[in-house]
Every structure is written in C-alpha cells, then in structure tokens.
Amino acid sequence: MTKLQAILNHTWFFPLLILYYGIAYVFIGEVYYLNEGFSMDGIVFSSFVSIDNFQRSYFFDTYYVHRIFPSLVVGIFFKIFSISITNANIVTGFQVLNAVSIALTCYYIKRILILLKVSFKNQLMAMLLFVLSFSVIKIPYFLPALTDTVAIVLSTAMLFFYLKKNTTGLVVCTILACFTWQMLFYQGIILIAIPFMVLPYSKFKPATKIAIQSASALIALIVCLYEIIVVKAEIQVELVAKINRTLLPLSIGGVVILLYFFSGIVLNSSLFNIRLFFQKLKLKNIIVAALTIVLTTYIVYVLHPAPNKFYPMSNMLTGTVASALIWPLHMLVSHISYWGIVVILLIFFWNDFSKFISQMGWGLVFAFGLNLFTFGIICETRCLANLLPWIIIFLAKAINKHSFSNAFYITIACLSIFASKIWYPLNPSKKYKYFMQLDENGSMGFPDQKLWMHVGPWMSEKMYLIQGAGIILIIILLFFILYRVEFSKEKKLEFVAKYKK
Using CA atoms, how far apart are residues 53 and 30, in angstroms rounded to an integer? Predict the structure, then answer.
C-alpha cells in the first residue's frame, strides 16, 4: 500500500477533511442572502435555540417538537460558553454543528464499509459520493439552520449499531431521532424490534415476481388517480409550478415505473417465510422498542407542545403525490440534482442494489422500504436525507463483487465534483437589484434559481429541462464506460459489460 493510499484509507481522513472544510467555510463561504442566512425553516429552528424559552416559540407544536434537538444542541453550546444568541451566531453555530455531524457521518460510513469488507477503491468511491453530494458539501453551510445533517449522522450511527448488534447505541440514536427527524424515529423503532440477520437469497418464480412488481405499480397508479380525480390534488405551495396537466399521463407513468422497480427490495422469497420471521423475533427487542416509544411519548407529553398547526398529515401525503406529478420523472431529476451521481449509479446497478438489500433481513428491508415507499417519489429530496448514507453504503457493497476499470472511478470522481456545485456560487451577484422574479409557471427565476433548481418543488421548468438533458448525457457517458455494443453471431445487438462480474 502506497503512502497516499494509506492516508486515504485512514479511518479519520475524510472526517478531518470535511471538518477542516466546514471550519474554512464558516470564515470564507457564503450563506443565504435573505433573512440573515435563514430560510423559512431556519427562522423556525432559530427560535428553539434559547434553552430557557424554546417552549414559548410560536412554532413549538406537535410537529416541530420532533425537530428541536439540533437547535437545543446549539443552545446548550451557547449557554456553556456564554455566547450571545444573535442571528449571526446562530448561523455559525449551526454551521459548526453541521460540520461535526458530517465528519461523524464520514467516520461511521468508513467503519461500516470496513465491517462489510468493501474494497479500498469502492470505499473511496463511497466517501466521494457522500462528501461531494450537493446536499452535503453546500446546503449544510449555505442554509445551515436545518435538522438534516444531524438526521444523517443519527441514521448512519443507527446502521452501524444495528450491524454491530449494539442495542444500547441504537436506542440512544432512536430517542435523539424522535426530536430530530420523525421518520428516522420510526426507522429506529423497526431496527430495535427486529434483530439483524442475513437472509439467503432465493428467487421467486417469474410469475410471482411479476405479480409483486405489478401489484406495487398498480397501487401507485390507484393512488395517483385517486389524488388527481377524487382529491383533485394541486400544488398549494407558493413559488412552485402547478401540475402540467398536458403531460400528466407521462408523469403518472413515471411514478408507476418507479414503484415497479422499488418493489425489487422485497424480491427475495426468504422475506416471505413468515414462520422463520417469528422464530427470529426476540421478546426482549420488542419490549425495548415498546419502552422507547413510551419514553419518547412521555417526553413529548411533558414538553406540552401546541396542537399541529403547520403540517397536517393529510396535507403532507397529498403534497407528496402532487409534487411527483408536476412533470414526468421530476423526482428523478430532483434526486440527482440534490444527491448527485449516486442516483445515476443506482439506475445502472439497481438489480444488484435491491438484491443486496433483500438479503439484509426484515429489519433493514422494512426500515429502508418505509422511507423509500413513503418519500421515494417526492421531489423534495431532503425529505429522504436520512436515507442517503444507507444508499451509498449499500450501493458500494452491492457492486463490490464487480471489478471496474480505473477510468470508471476517475469518471465518477470528476462527475461528482461537477455535480456537487462546490465551484458554483449560489447567491446572486451584486448587479441584481430585484430578486424573487417569477416565471410564467409561478416558479422563481434567476438569480434565485441558482439555489432552488436543486430543491425539487421550487425547480423551474427551464431548469428541469436543462438538468434533465444534462443527466441524459451523463447516463450516456457512463453507459459507454460500463458497456460496449456488439453484434452476436445471430447478428443481434448486444450490450456487453466491460467490467468483470
């Protein structure tokens, strides 16, 4: 192993690298130009920073009580070191918290990749896919007052403790998740209740496989038609384009196709062995999961938040479907724009990825599927923030059985740098005097689109088309790096993998 390789392979290399980057960003990086660095969400979370007064915040209700932990961490830090609570200090406090959270996430990702015996090259690729994601390298510092990065590190730690069968660590992460990211709390409860086990992979008969995938697609079709015909769902959020009714059949088709492929994570007949499932369950785990629910429910009761007045569950579910139908495969463009090249690699290696997931036991399949089937079609990719490290880790392990050329890894690294937008300033230049300019579809135009073209629902139609075209070009490039076109002896066109399977 060369000296450079030894450095890159060190457990703390990427954690320290991202920590130095975060500290440097605090001094020389840009923050959102409106509201002194806060987005609308930032205003909410900044109101919880005061340890003594967070319960008096106008926003403290039964929804936001599950998002207060990161703010309280910043507040406790301020109180210990007697730092005044000003907007500038809050922004810096969240930036530091996010840098530490991302550094810890890198540490846990590395530990999990070692645990899963992933090769050095694929470990390096996984780390680059994570740190060079727009959602990791830009958003946590440009829009710092959010809960996303704390959710990411808790989710990664959950996975590590689950694979290590460390119930104590898993319970602590789940309790903290209850007050950081509510979907992550449900994810943790599933992992506590269902012990980790590796299942053998057993194929279904072709007819059964098609039936399962078709059932998933049919449910997606019914939900879309119900929302459009019965509920008459439409985009209610300001500055977001309305559903393109002309292209609606294509948009519904895109959702149906995605759900068809999503069902691949359950295409292992071992998952349907009900007798084995109940044999593997342990009463101790179920009791611990139940006690965790009771404890967090009691804490919420003691905090006494106001009734939910901002995000009713019915509106959230309707909004999820509506945002998926704005334009055809809008959610796919959004995911790639926000997460980067990892989503394109998922397209190429979905069969390997879903097969690996299906062998990781009921707990991981249920936890992963809960997130994927609930928010996989939503355009606001950050709703799946807690799933990003899992996707990268499982992808790296799933393709670890293949042998790729150096050109493949170099291309992925270069494309990741490009897709991360680390080189792209997001704030408008000083020459602009007027912001929040709306286009003909009601979306924000430039210069605001410099940021919002990465955040699905607020992406304009123009940027949807431009980014979609760019994604197609990247897919074509990767296709010819991974495959070559040949004619068989029967003179049939074939795509032959250049990598060794």
Answer: 30
Cα 377 from chain centroid (whole Å): 12
pLDDT of 318 > 80? The answer is no
Tell me the C-alpha distance between 445 and 468, whole Å.
17
Total number of domains constituting the chain: 1
Tell me, yes or no, whether 278 lies in a domain. Answer: no
Whether residue 294 is contained in a domain is answered as no
pLDDT per residue over 32-61, tens digit each?
887 778 888 889 999 999 998 899 999 999
Backbone φ and ψ of 469, nearest 5°: -65, -40
Q: Which two tokens stand for residue 222?
A: 């019914």
pLDDT of residue 40: 80
Tell me the helices (H) and strands (E) count for the chain, helix number first: 24, 2
In a domain, 281, yes or no: no
What is the extent of the structural domain holding 443? 419-426+433-497
- For 130-153, b/e burial (b = at least 16 CB within 10 A) is bbbbbbbbbbbbbbbbbbbbbbbb
In a domain, 437, yes or no: yes
* DSSP-derived secondary structure for 224-264: HHIIIIIS-----STTSPPP-STTHHHHHHHHHHHHHHHGG
Q: At what angle do helices 313-324 and 330-339 cross, to 10 degrees?
A: 100
- Residue 409 exposure: Cα atoms within 13 Å on the Cβ side: 18
For 299, other C-beta atoms within 10 Å of its C-beta total 13
Q: What does the alpha-carbon distance between residue 376 and residue 255 come to, in Å, rounded to a whole number?
A: 9
In which band, very low, low, confident or very high, does the pLDDT at 434 lie, cut at 50, 70 and 90? Answer: low
pLDDT tens sequence across 119-152: 999 999 999 999 999 999 999 999 999 999 999 9
Residue 315: what pLDDT?
58
Q: Which two tokens stand for residue 306?
A: 């106001």
Which amino acid would we find at residue 496? V
